[in-house]
Design goal:
Layout: H1 7-18, E1 24-26, H2 27-33, E2 43-47, H3 51-60, E3 65-67, E4 79-84, E5 89-94, E6 97-99, E7 104-106, E8 111-115, E9 118-121, H4 123-132, H5 136-147, H6 155-158
Amino acid sequence: MRTPPVDVVMRVVRSLRARGMEPALGGSGLLVALGLTEIAHDWDLTVDSPEAAVREALDDGGFRFSDGTGGDPLYATRRRFIIDGGGHSIDLLVGFALRSADEVVPLPSQVTGSWRGLPLADPVVWERAYVLLGRPKKAAALRQWLNEDPQAERPQRKFLG
């Protein structure tokens, strides 16, 4: 398993939590945490909080970041902050949402467990996100994981706390 270093993303999580926000790790980081892939090239965090509060938390935490909102018409996310993670990036999606053929689909930031101290996003939300993003293999992997025997031991269950 290969991931970017955890130190900066953990600092982002702590900074947001210190202000009462609850971020959630999604994307390939979630897939690695659930044992569905071996590599995460970057970190994707979501949070459902006011943009100004998120920006303030990043400023106060001393993070270098830019506004990466816009550019891809598929995304309806309120704000995308790209945080310098020291050789890799951390995407912080504020009000994560995607466009389908006929509507904007909000994808709520819900924490369902933890892994390596990182709060894990809801796999159901990310399965839907991957369908909308046109990434059928990732969506199928999450769907299969969600449909496994509910009594089976899963990485996410091990780390609930």
